[in-house]
Amino acid sequence: MEKLKLRAESATKALKTLHEITEESYSTIIRDASIKRFEYSFDIFWKFIKDYLRVREGIECASPKSCFREAFKVGILSEEETVKTLEMTDDRNLSTHTYDEEAVEEIYHQIRDYWVLMDRVCRRVVEAIEAEG
User: pTM of this prediction?
Assistant: First the structure.
């Protein structure tokens, strides 16, 4: 349980840093920093979902996509959110392996929406943890 609470705190902090950078005016430096913050926020977010599923639902999942699909099955994510998290996973994977300026720009322009999604889901899961004690 303690690990789950620590993971929740880490996810909340990472998402705060992601939100902060989405408020900055565009420059290539801000774009690149935004993508870096998106990458680590995404990683912490999906691992938080993974730990929640393991601890609270008894579900083991090994990858972001499998965790998001399982989260949908247990009602953590709506169908629309699940589709968006799967797209977000693709962008996360692409962002670490691409040097294509056009792809980087497209990902950058999605980051604010991804932050909104991750923040909403993170808050929902934290509330569930607190309600369950």
Answer: 0.94
